[in-house]
Specification:
Layout: H1 8-24, E1 32-34, E2 38-40, E3 43-50, H2 59-72, E4 76-81, E5 88-92, E6 98-104, E7 107-113
Antiparallel strand pairs: 1-3, 2-3, 3-7, 4-5, 5-6, 6-7
Length: 155
């Protein structure tokens, strides 16, 4: 299906599949919650917020796993921010979806933005979060789940 044939509901579902595959690459798995979905004009954005503490020492590993997974699936890296405190990777799928991983305030945020699509209703994501849902909570809490690997203080 090309982007011209896609409506916002289908674009949101496609974005969810990209996010699902991205998070499935992370071993050990991290806890995450749904961020807000935005839909308007002719596009939709899906977000996922990582609730596992990713230590400064492990951010490079985390970014590398995500980047390699995207490349394996044909998602092209468009830009990298190597800032020590707020690193980020920006990419684009073959069908025009923008994909990003951004660290802000020590927390990892995933976002997928659709290209121009036909307006339609957008349902909430059908995939349950990995961890508490934080339904009705905004903003989401800071990362607080500790992991022996991702939260470790040694590279």
């Amino acid at each position: 299906m090309s982007e011209a044939d896609m409506d916002m509901r289908e674009a949101a579902e496609h974005a969810d599949r990209i996010l699902d595959a991205t998070l499935a690459d992370l071993r050990p798995p991290v806890q995450w919650a749904h961020g807000p979905t935005t839909a308007g004009g002719h596009g939709v954005t899906r977000r996922r917020t990582v609730m596992t503490v990713i230590s400064a020492e492990r951010r490079g590993n985390f970014l590398g796993v995500v980047e390699r997974g995207w490349q394996r699936r044909g998602i092209r890296i468009r830009g990298i921010n190597n800032d020590r405190r707020s690193p980020a990777v920006y990419a684009r799928t073959e069908d025009g979806f923008g994909v990003s991983l951004i660290f802000g305030g020590g927390q990892a945020f995933f976002e997928v933005d659709s290209p121009w699509v036909t307006p339609s209703e957008v349902a909430e994501c059908a995939v349950a979060p990995h961890g508490p849902s934080y339904e009705g909570v905004y903003p989401l809490p800071r990362p607080h789940v500790r992991c022996a690997f991702w939260s470790a203080g040694a590279p």
